[in-house]
Amino acid sequence: MSPSAEASEPAASRTGVVILTLSLAGMLAALQQTLVVPMLPEVPGIFGVSTDSGTWMVTVTLLTGAVATPIVSRMADMYGKRRMIIWTMVTMILGSLLLALSTSFALAVTGRALQGVASALIPVGISIMRDELPSERVGFGVALMSATLGIGSAMGLPLSGVLYKHFGWHSLFWVSAAVGAAVLVCVVLLVGESKVKTPGRFDLLGALILSAALTSFLLAVSKGSTWGWISLPVLLLFVASVVLMMIWFPYELRVSDAMVDLRTTARRPVLLTNVASVLIALAMYVNMLLTVTLLELPRGTGHGLGLEVSAAGLAMVPTGLIMVVLSPFSGMILNKWGGRLTMAAGAAIMSVSYLLRIPFSHDVTQVIIGSSLVGLGTALCFAAMPMLIMASVPITETAAANGINSLMRAIGGATSSAVFAAVLASMTVSFGGENVPTRGAFDLMFVLCSVATAVAVGVTWLIPVRVREGQRISDKVVPPGRTSAETVVRGILRIGGEAPRQTAAIVTVTQVDGTPVDWARCDQEGGYSVALPGPGRYVIVGNARGWAPHAQCADLGDGTALEHVSLTQELTIAGTVTNGGVPVSEAMVALHHGAGDFVGSVKTDWQGRYRFPLPPAGPYVVTAADPNTSLAVSRKVTATAERMVTDLDLTTGRVNRPARVVK
């Protein structure tokens, strides 16, 4: 058996090795974001370019990372998570080698673009941990993998500062390539491929439109302070991003195998988690920017601490270490408190810590403690984010959903840089012939970050709790009873014998003892995929708007099997119009909402029958009129989620049979 095959179901004794391998890969990917920060002031001299052009060494990495994350994450769900991790690492290594050997600025920017693709590795790694680890280790593994974004970014500053100072700028990329190659070998040998895949047609057009929209928005945000926020290029980029998103949203709602399942993303738990993630990521990145800037400002300013670049970078190490140390406890906290309370507590710690930094930022020790406290809250938040996401999406979509969450964090990071630059540039004082930020600028940023994280607490508290009493969140993320990696069963749902098309259709699967297993949203052709914890008997429930649900028991387990679900009974308001007991054909029947709004009208058939698709729940008025006799009658009905029958007699104005509900 090959090592990779043997690793497909890691034994408990090897679980720690798998977690360590993926976490090292995540830290290395996150490190690429801050790798060139210490050498950024020297880039114009190294390559003979302007200062504005030199910033592309950072900007291009942000852009490619943001674009690659949702695309690679979606491809991971379709083609294999381990495969995409290997692909992103190979791309990052090639970028590092290109930079290490480059003397051309164009090649250097290309290398940085390739390095940025590695950002997609983190959400894919989180998803493969969920698929491959024992349920009792999922919380710890996901907490550590999620925190690697902050750990790698914090560690990147001191590491790159030391390498650049002692060995030159080429050493940054030789080391990155060498470490990347070593971690890649570990991934190939130790990490197994997840069996949870949902093959389909890749939404190339959706990916291109989304990439263009993200590039326009993030480029405008990144360059706004340099080019001018009201300059024509920035305004055009913002307009382009809005127009492209207005095209992308309706397209994604119509296409099968969409790039992003917008209906799932719009579910309250997922949407609110992503909103909170933007605010928390903004505060996390500002923490690093504020801390390093405050430490490096000359002491003569009255509030700077006068450290060298390398020393300021080393001062960020405790912030990264506290995220590492806290990760083993984050999983326990998650299972004890739940995802919502854990993230709310982390955001609250960040908010209070930022307020405390206002009076306690006068020496290096105070600054390090303040930064570390913010890092502590960040670690709790980052541990909870992916668990909340994965508990609310189908198992077959965990990588894509985590990818969108990582994209939200990237947007928060890009926004933080823009806000940081705007505030510090607007509040300056002259020192040594240069303009430097005032103490008030730092205090204002502390307050803004405290407010942002306080808002994140409120947003997090609105996330609905759906974990049963006494149930651990890891048990909701990983179905109880899983004896090995899940097997995926695919099927087709038909509504009245046809594909759902634009009708929202859902398939849910539970075990016969009532334990929830998975759910899926059908595509426009009715296809669905669900992941099962093992072979056995399951209850499959199909449901679609306007149709009666259908349940069936089935023995499932073979990943190639197809399980079909058919919905045959349309939910309607229906009945018969009579005149003295005689059916009236061609009578007009109108349906109005109780508030008077017109819903629709139909004509009765030769047997006097009429039918309306069941409208949203609420009070309605059904009116029947015979144009030949000028007789008319109206009745009030209350629509629920059940099929309704209302018969009307034009002669007596009485209902022949009381309005009844047909189940």
Automatic annotation (TrEMBL):
Pfam families associated with the record: CarboxypepD_reg, MFS_1
Compartment list: Cell membrane
CDD domains: MFS_MMR_MDR_like
Superkingdom classification of source: Bacteria
Transmembrane intervals: 12-33, 53-72, 84-107, 113-129, 138-159, 171-192, 204-221, 227-249, 270-290, 310-329, 341-360, 366-389, 410-432, 444-463
Membrane topology note: Multi-pass membrane protein
Keywords, sorted A to Z: Membrane, Transmembrane, Transmembrane helix, Transport
Keyword Nucleotide-binding on entry: no
GO MF annotation list: transmembrane transporter activity
InterPro entries for this protein: MFS (IPR011701), MFS_dom (IPR020846), MFS_trans_sf (IPR036259)
Start and end residues of each Major facilitator superfamily (MFS) profile domain: 18-468
Cellular component GO terms, alphabetical: plasma membrane
The protein's name in its UniProt record: MFS family permease
Species this protein is from: Nocardioides daedukensis
Taxon lineage: Bacteria, Bacillati, Actinomycetota, Actinomycetes, Propionibacteriales
